[in-house]
Amino acid sequence: MRRLILFPVIMALSLAGVAAASAAASEADFAAALAAAETAHEEAGTLKNQWTTTAQTLAAARQAAAGRDFDKAVVLARQAEALAKASIYQAKEQDEAWKAAVIH
User: Fold this and answer.
1) 7-13: which pairs have CB atoms within 8 A and are 24 or more residues apart?
2) Among positive and negative, which fits the CA dihedral 35, 79, 59, 44?
3) pLDDT per residue as tens digits for the range 47-104
4) Which of the 8 DSSP states describes residue 5?
5) CA distance 13 to 38
6) Spatial CA neighbour of 10 closest among 102, 75, 70, 88
7) How far apart are CA 8 and CA 3, in angstroms?
8) What are the residue ranges spanned by the domains of the chain?
C-alpha cells in the first residue's frame, strides 16, 4: 500500500525536475539526455512495460532536435526518461503487489 502512495509522488517529482532544464541546451546535452531516456525505455521493454507516452515523448524530442530547438528537445528527452523510469517502477511494484491479492 505504501508503494501505491509513493508512485504518484515520485512521478510528480520526476516531472517537476524535468521542467527545470537549463537554458541554452546544446546538441551534446540533447544527445546525453536522449541516450539516458532510450536506455530507460529499453529497460522498460525488457520488463514488458513500455508506455506509449514514453515513445511519443521520445519522438517529440527527436523532432525538436531536428528543428534545432535543443532546449525543448532536452526537456522532452528528460520527460521521456522520467516516464520510462516510472514504467520500470510500476513493473517492479506490480511484480510484487500481486502476491498481496493471492489468498493464502
Assistant:
1) 7/86, 7/89, 7/90, 7/93, 10/86, 10/89, 11/82, 11/86
2) positive
3) 999 999 999 999 999 999 999 999 999 999 999 999 999 999 999 999 888 888 886 6
4) H
5) 20
6) 88
7) 9
8) 2-101
CB neighbourhood size of 32 (10 A): 14
CA distance 32 to 34: 5
Helix ranges (H only) for the chain are 2-18, 27-46, 52-66, 70-101
Q: Give the global pTM.
A: 0.76
pLDDT single digits (tens) 4-27 = 555 665 665 565 555 554 468 999
Overall residue count recorded for the chain in this entry: 104
The residue with cell 508503494 is 3
